[in-house]
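Fresh eyes needed here. I'd like your take on this protein's tokenised backbone:
***
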Amino acid sequence: MVPNVNLKLLQTFLLAAEHGSFRRAAEESNRSPSAVSMQIRDLEEQVGVSLFVRTPQCVTLTPEGRLLYDQVGRAMGEVQAGLTRLAELAAQRRGHLKIACAPTLASTRLGPILMTFRARFPRSVVEVRETPPAGALVMLQAQEVELYVGPEPPNLTEVHFEPILRDRLAACVPPALDGGAVALRLADLTALPLIMLDRQTAIRALTDRIAAAAGLCLRPNYEVQNAYTAIALAQAGLGVALVPEVAVPMLPGAGYRVVPVADPGAERAIGILTLRGHVLHGDSEQLIDLIRSELSRC
């Protein structure tokens, strides 16, 4: 049976072989000569052969010791080369961050955050990929990105979600359809032309759940993929757009009024998604801190 040798014993063996002296090996490793001699003896007992010929002046390798030295030396060299390569990759990643972001957040909230980050870390490059939550999970699992900023996805078994803000469902109401209400329920909108996102989006799933709980059947006049398209159609006067509040431009737009939807559960969590157990490097931690700080003000 192959012995399960402690790596420290092999390191001590290499030092003693290279210096031809237990005393020099002890000095190199900040241990006593007796401790080094004991470790060599333990190694010899584990492998079942003598590795050194000992004399008062020096120690020399036996043929079996030379065989072990050649093999372990090559293996340690490969390990060191691997560690050096990992360090180089870590240094590259430190200056090149890859993140994913929900399109609604990328268009309305991410720009100022990245401007502040660039001012603080001018040498860092941030690559942003826009994707809905389902796509973000795939990217995180494949380690194509380090983090995702967006709504909370279902099935959080392999990932960690840190909620930062609550994002309400909102209605963008054009003047011709605006009754002046400070809040609306979905039941108030059934008689109006509706602009809704398609069924592939998380906000549409949320809207459908709220409508089903209220016993409503919403029939959109227009169904689009992008929240900004829905807002643009509402701005043109074609109907009331149901969109996440975070998708509404930060500057007020002409041609519609933003009214919160007051049905129970008409909100979702927005935050940061990371892969469980994944080690983030320094710049990623700094970006997360900045995202956390800026989004919490929204």
